[in-house]
Amino acid sequence: MDTPSSRPPSRILNFAFTDKNSLYAAYMPFIQNGGIFIANSRRYALGDDIFLILKLLDDPDSLPIAGKIVWVTPPGAEGGRVVGIGIQFGTQDKGAARRKIESLLAGMLESDRPTMTM
User: Fold this and answer.
1) Residue 23's closest CA among 95, 79, 102?
2) Fewer beta carbons under 10 A from the terminal one: N or C of the chain?
3) What's the alpha-carbon Rg for the chain, to the nearest Å?
4) pTM for this predicted structure
């Protein structure tokens, strides 16, 4: 069983989305509290804690998000999928990150366009 001292420390990751299409392709609304897929070739394991500093479009403020790795797309994944990780947003921000992303993607969330996850 993992104890707090045996788990690896949280990692910090900075990422920016510069357009709505890439944000739409990465957003994971089907994850409890919301989540985001980040293209990244570094090794992570399911369950790893992560602290994400997320910059969205032209917003001058970044969103600090404590989260957990819930999705890993490894190199060589079927269908030529983008290598990266899915991060589930924690509850610390009381849904602020999810609300911000969904307001930016208003009108796009019902689309059937493919995403980087499902």
Assistant:
1) 102
2) N
3) 14
4) 0.83
Read off the DSSP letter of residue 80.
G
How far is CA 114 from each of CA 5, 84, 96, 111, rounded to the nearest angstrom? 40, 16, 25, 9
Number of separate domains in the chain: 1
Q: What is the pLDDT of residues 64-83, one digit of tens each?
A: 999 999 999 988 888 878 89
Domain residues for 63? Answer: 11-104
Q: Where are the alpha helices (DSSP H) in the chain?
A: 20-26, 96-104
Within 8 A by CB and 6+ apart from 48, the residues are: 8, 11, 68, 69
Tokens of 71: 């999705």
- What is the distance, to the nearest Å, from the Cα of residue 73 to the centroid of all Cα atoms in its chain? 12
| Tokens describing residue 67 | 């989260």
Token code pair at residue 12? 């910090």
